[in-house]
Amino acid sequence: MTNLTFGTLAMRIANEADAYEYLESLRWPEKPVCPHCGVMNDHYFLKPTNGVSRTTTRGSESQRRVWKCKDCRKQFSVLTGTIFHGSKVPLQTWLFVFFEMCTNKNGIAAREIARKYGVAPKTAWFMTQRIREAMANDSSGKLSGNIVMDETYIGGKPENWHANDPRRAKKGNSTTKMAAVALISEETGEIRTKVVTNVTGSVIQNMVRENVVTGTTTLHSDSAPLYRTVSKEMAGHHVVNHHAGQYITELSNGTNKAENFFSQLKRSIDGTHHCVSKEHLSRYLSEFAFRHGSHYLSDTERMVKLMGQVPGVRLSYRPLTAE
Ligand SMILES: [Zn+2]
After folding, report:
1. Is 289 contained in some domain?
2. Which pLDDT score, from 0 to 100, does residue 254 have?
3. In this structure, which long-range contacts are made by residues 165-169, counting pairs with CB atoms below 8 Å and at least 24 apart in sequence?
4. 171 pLDDT exceeds 70?
5. Residue 105: which pLDDT band, with cuts at 50, 70 and 90?
């Protein structure tokens, strides 16, 4: 399989009909499945009368590929039941933006999408939010093995802002600081994240229980007391004592993986985001965790993984690797 680049993707989906066919090949590797009644196999393609496009109810020309189910007699397309359905943004643009968001190390800012693809800033923002939802929609199950866990504070301390800092006028002196907790598999690099206002032992414990098979997992953390309670449930707990200048031990690579993840995240937030709300930060963490946790995949495979996580799209991995 040749690795996708922006150039090869652009050639493959040169127009809207191509984009439909591309998504069809991912979603329906064998034959279309009717999203209305679930019947596979017995559908016919409604060829546009002029061979290229059809006129929509609003009177505009569309290259939408439409199928009709012989069973329930309803029409459908590959977009039916997905987040793309009803969107005025061309599918081709959606697919380009998906690709950019899963391959650019820092993602792509909404204003950049608006500029590059000629969509309204609001639409661009909506697109990035939907794509982040897909990124967060990872159902690969609980982690086990060796898990690195660490927490960090994001959003800055207003008391440290300069007296003339414009953020003061906007925010007053209320704190905008939020905590992010990351849990990373030492073996696969998969990440689970959580945004909280305060990190406590029970926050850590709940997060571990939700995401990890505790009995077969060894926890690696710093010496913060936060990790003590949950460590009793784990197969093992290796601690590095940062206060004593210890970062790795014979038994543990310490929390380096988590610290690298957080520092890349913070650099990117500083570079592209001015205001970080709790909701925004949590989506942003999902986006970073998705890319970080799938670093071992090729760009093509990552794109395929992400398309499979789009709510409403269930796809088989077979077709992706076929070409
Ligand atoms: Zn049907």
Report:
1. no
2. 81
3. 167/274
4. no
5. confident
DSSP alpha helix (H) spans, 151-219: 166-171, 201-211
First to last CA, the chain: 5
Strand stretches in the chain, DSSP E: 43-46, 54-55, 61-62, 66-69, 75-76, 143-154, 178-185, 191-196, 212-222, 236-240
Residue with tokens 């493959």: 12
Q: Using CA atoms of 86, 92, 95, 99 in order, give the dihedral in degrees to the nearest 10.
A: -150
55 C-alpha vs ligand 1 centroid, how far in Å?
A: 23
Q: Would 177 be classed as within a structural domain?
A: yes
CATH at residue 184: 3.30.420.10
Give 33 Cα–ligand 1 centroid separation in angstroms: 8
20 alpha carbon – ligand 1 mean position (Å): 19
Query: Among 154-158, 230-234, 254-258, which is the least confidently predicted range?
Result: 154-158
Do residues 68 and 132 share a domain? yes
28 has a pLDDT exceeding 70: yes
How many alpha carbons fall within 13 Å on the CB side of residue 275?
7
Ligand 1 center from residue 42 Cα (angstroms) = 9
Q: Against a cut of 0.85, is the pTM above it?
A: no
CA of 86 to the centre of ligand 1 (A): 19
- Structure confidence at residue 126 (pLDDT): 87
Q: Are residues 131 and 165 in the same domain?
A: no
Look at the chain and count its residues: 323
Supply the Cα-derived Rg of the chain in whole angstroms: 23
